[in-house]
Amino acid sequence: MDYKSKYSQFIKSEAKRIGFLSCGISKAEFLEVEAPRLEKWLKNNAHGEMRYMENHFDKRLDPTKLVEGSKSVVSLLLNYYPSEIQNHDAYKLSKYAYGTDYHFVIKDKLKQLLHSIQDQIGEVHGRAFVDSAPVLDKAWAAKSGLGWIGKHSNLLTQQVGSFYFIAELIIDLDLEYDHAVTDHCGTCTACIDACPTEAITEPYVVDGSKCISYFTIELKENIPSDFKGQFDDWMFGCDVCQDVCPWNRFSKAHNEPLFNPHPELLSMTKKDWEEITKDTFNKVFKKSAVKRTKFEGLQRNIKFLKD
């Protein structure tokens, strides 16, 4: 066995030990297929007010411009599917935001993985990324065989579904590279048919500026009144396209204690949400990704659903 396969196998088994669902590896190079897609998406203003998507175009498509000397992109998946979901009479929260903010949880795991690589293999340099830098997570995960990009533009994996986070280590080590898997969406259009705001404008293309997650998290101004009555009670994020996807029949509950929700969260009713105080918000969402929308943002979203 040559050193590349030996190191690759070590990284994959270590990733599993640390708690990642799976791990795939790609050569760090320019994402040729993604370049025209990203350009068109931005040109169509599908990113709405998310102006940061326009920045670092070159770095987004080429990890060697982002991390000097990089040779490999190690993509990792971490399951967040909950064992229990919210009370049915409640304003809804995307499942990924039930527990501790994933940025902290995953960053720790990525640091552990990088330290293990350095201990075992020697001087390896690189950087860890969790959805906070110009890295096209889904494209890299698909390139490294962890799944295919579904018609709702999320990564999908057979036997697993799509309720997982994607993260990367970009490192200066040559490794054995994985291959992309085939698309298994077939003729299914469940996600397109179910999207409450018709944000999936064509298979594999999402107009981010029409997505409920965009309105409830990214948009800082008032939500346009044309969308009244279309939010299906989602107050932070939206899981509709994932909930209806047949592949998510295979989702299994995560085993990461930090992703467990605050005990109060699952039992809160619409009335509780409407009367939520700043203290309760701070208590229930102490280390949560929901803090991103802030107390006032969540109140705005609830008011939009209620009125």
UniProtKB/TrEMBL annotation:
Name of a matching Pfam family: Fer4_16
Tell me which cofactor or cofactors this protein depends on. Answer: cob(II)alamin; [4Fe-4S] cluster
The domain of life is: Bacteria
Provide the residue positions that the database annotates as binding [4Fe-4S] cluster 1.
C185, C188, C191, C245
Record-linked SUPFAM superfamilies: alpha-helical ferredoxin (SSF46548)
The record places the active site at: D131
- Pathway(s) of this molecule: tRNA modification; tRNA-queuosine biosynthesis
Positions that bind tRNA: K220
Has keyword Metal-binding?
yes
Looking at the record, the residues that make up the 4Fe-4S ferredoxin-type domain are: 173-205
Q: What molecular function terms (GO) are annotated for this protein?
A: epoxyqueuosine reductase activity
| UniProt keyword Transmembrane helix, yes or no | no
Q: Which EC number(s) does the record attach to this protein? A: 1.17.99.6
Compartment(s) of residence:
Cytoplasm
Q: Where does cob(II)alamin bind?
A: R60, D131, L155, I166, S213, C238, D239
User: What reaction(s) does this enzyme catalyze?
Assistant: epoxyqueuosine(34) in tRNA + AH2 = queuosine(34) in tRNA + A + H2O
Residues involved in [4Fe-4S] cluster 2 binding: C195, C211, C238, C241
Keyword list (alphabetical) reads:
4Fe-4S, Cobalamin, Cobalt, Cytoplasm, Iron, Iron-sulfur, Metal-binding, Oxidoreductase, Queuosine biosynthesis, tRNA processing
Record function comment: Catalyzes the conversion of epoxyqueuosine (oQ) to queuosine (Q), which is a hypermodified base found in the wobble positions of tRNA(Asp), tRNA(Asn), tRNA(His) and tRNA(Tyr).
Record's subunit section: Monomer.
Q: What is this protein called?
A: Epoxyqueuosine reductase
* Biological source species: Psychroserpens ponticola
| Lineage, uppermost ranks | Bacteria, Pseudomonadati, Bacteroidota, Flavobacteriia, Flavobacteriales
